[in-house]
Amino acid sequence: xxxxxxxAGTVGTSVAAALAGEDNDIxxxxxxxxxxxxxAEKIDLRTVTGHASYPSVLERAGADDAELVIAVTNSDExxxxxCQVAHAVFRTPTKIARVREADYIAHPEWIGxxxxxxxxxxxxxxLVCRHVQRLIEYPGALQVLEFxxxxxxxxxxxxxxxxxxxxxxxxxxxxxxxxxxxxxxxAIFRAGRPIAVDANTVIEVDxxxxxxxDRRDIRTVMSELRRVERAARRVFLAxxxxxxxxxxxxxxxxxxxxxxERSRERTxxxxxxxxxxxxxxxxxxxxxxxxxxxxxxxxxxxxxxNDDEANILSAMLAKRLGCPRVISLIxxxxxxxxxxxxxxxxxxxxxxxxxxxxxxxxRQGTMVRVHSLRRGAAEAIEAVALGDRRSSQVIGRAIEExxxxxSTTIGGIVRGEKLLIAHHDVVIEPNDHLIxxxxxxxxxxxxxxxxxxxxxxx
Length: 458
Fold this sequence. Notes:
Layout: E1 2-6, H1 10-20, E2 25-30, H2 33-42, E3 46-49, H3 55-61, E4 68-71, H4 76-88, E5 94-98, H5 102-105, E6 120-122, H6 124-137, E7 141-147, E8 152-158, H7 173-176, E9 183-190, E10 193-195, E11 208-214, H8 218-225, E12 234-238, H9 242-251, E13 256-261, H10 264-273, E14 278-281, H11 287-292, E15 300-303, H12 308-320, E16 326-329, H13 333-339, E17 346-348, H14 350-362, E18 367-373, E19 378-384, E20 408-415, E21 418-421, E22 433-438, H15 444-450
Parallel strand pairs: 1-2, 1-4, 2-3, 4-5, 5-6, 12-13, 12-15, 13-14, 15-16, 16-17
Antiparallel strand pairs: 7-8, 8-11, 9-10, 9-11, 18-19, 19-22, 20-21, 20-22
């Protein structure tokens, strides 16, 4: 596929790196020639220096025969105009724009190929807000990923001493769970590396365990891997920007929410915008202020400012002062890998969350949802089984008969409203949604071929 990526920032670079190894013809456009030169030294792609919304620049980048434009510059207006130009001048089939400004997102009626030229609008703030909200809803979870409109969830947890299944093989899990609850351990990462998983695999302390279950059963399964944590009631949000405001709105009807914002002008505006949240003015690194606000009695502290260093320091401070669970927004991947699992429980990477949403729209054919995992090293995919037994390599076959690529696991099958855990004798039917886990992204093309309906298959 010929793809134009407009913007060589953190998201643009992440998308380019994710797609470069998949036989795509990628061109990146940016005004920063030095940044483009550094990118081209790391990744095999073309670069064009210039303003991404100018027709002449898009023409030099190859927009005449591009199949996809991904506009992720730092300017909403540039992204919008670039998609309009790609649509009107070059008739590009698919245009994706990242838009941050809440006022644009609040009026979705202007979005669409016939109105604005934009086929898909991605809002990082909304994506991150929903991601953090799910982490608050499930205490102890490192990631909570939704499939089939939320009917199935893939959850990552770190196994802790005291969990019923820790130091025991996976095959004992079924005996611990109620008869109506079923789950599948899709993958285990030990010391940062994936290990082979089967019924005899023993779960050890600090293993990062990914399991798939019906959303109603998540807490039950989590209790087997770590001590049950009480549900959060009090949430403290440091940072009243777009993400902080959106998250406070989403939480304030169900939780006791405090929002801390440095700007007094922004604080006044937030106090008018939010209904049930307490809005405070001050510095998130002010130890006396956090003590006064009883941070030790807060269930979850979320550092959501635009400053990575401030988020890291304030989250570490909140943890030291007694907050049991802290979440920090961190843009730099190196920082996120450095601090997660220390005094900071979860480091949320906005570009990885955004990348997952972009990949869902970029992947071709039967891939209807894609989640980028472990800083892009692995992927969880929802694929649809199309065709019939003659045209499909999966339909009409039991899971044990499917020739899966190495490092690929089927976690479950969503059939209608029901989640079926992927046991070896489950037979795939037309229109089943299969949830797969890839610990080696190099196998992605093989997975895509596996789900391609082809009349020549016997």
